[in-house]
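Dear Dr. H.,

I hope your travels went smoothly. While you were away I took the liberty of generating a structure for the chain from your last submission, since the lab meeting agenda had it listed for discussion. I wanted you to have the full record in hand beforehand rather than looking at slides cold. The sequence, exactly as received, is reproduced here:
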Amino acid sequence: MGCGTPWTPACTSRPASPGSHARHSVAPRTGSEVPSTPSRWEGTFPSLGGTMRHALICLSIVLLTMMSCGPPSGAEKIVFESERDGNGEIYIMNNDGSDPVNLTNNPAWDGLPSWSPDGQRIVFTSERSGNAEVWVMDRDGGNVTPLTRGEGVSVGPAWSPAGDRIAFASNRTYYLSLEGGSLEVPGNMKIWVMGADGTNPVRWTEELGLDFYPSWSPDGQKIAFMSVRDGNGEIYVVSTEGGEVNLTRHPAEDWSPAWSPDGQTILFMSDRDGNKEIYVMNADGSDPVNLTNHPANDGDPAWSPDGRRIVFISDRDGDVEIYVMNRDGTEQTRLTFSPGDDLHPSWTR
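The corresponding predicted structure, in token form, is as follows:
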């Protein structure tokens, strides 16, 4: 199973190359029309001088534009993995899907990106050293630096809300303390947390089984993750105080959790209705709701910074592309139109 494969829970090697697809074009998106001159506002501020009146008129036009069009197009960024150039690369685009730029441009596979809280750096997984490791770079693709080095496979990093730690999944060898000694446990994927500079890695999950896809709670005290320890994939939560709680308890596969910015809900991907769909549940695992309700496969959900929208992937149009929807599942809109699969989106201001 590949690191970039969207429909499989495990992530231990690079994805298979996708087939070729025809490129589509995107019609430009425009907002409501704004008057080209302020003549309609003349006389609104009769007691003000010309300079002040002109300034207030301009301010009124700007405010009307913002109200009718929403936030300026491209004010926020989405980073994602794409196969459009033949191998996995990290791209960045505006939040409306415009202006995609390849940040990595490396012959090795790069994928699974995640933003730092301040939106200035990106942590990701790369095979450029010959092994899947966690790397970090600036938002423009500069200063590429490895954070893990040769201790097994390390994948799927996620930055903590405070920016001081990074969670990731790794199969590095660890030791269980036993009465009278210790037991070496090699090759078992667990959730680890290290400093943002790669120092002091600490294992957070204890139970035997395979653990992937860490997602921090907004207060930085808990991590939601996917685990295969009860015979199928489930969503668990582990806290700084220890203890791992199964939230989903369903016979189907559940994976790719994403904690909401307000901490109240968790997105996840599940095939409990026969195909892959995106669900949302309360942070305690109650009241799961299918948001996508589409016959295609949908996955890799991530929240917008304000928690009002959700970016995700879907193969509903032939190959895997990035879409966006409102937090209640309405207005599902396609953002990318590339010949290769686009995966693992992450959104920042």
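Two observations you may find useful: Residues 77-348 form a domain with the Neuraminidase fold (CATH 2.120.10.30). Confidence is low (pLDDT under 50) at residues 9-74.

With kind regards,
E. W.
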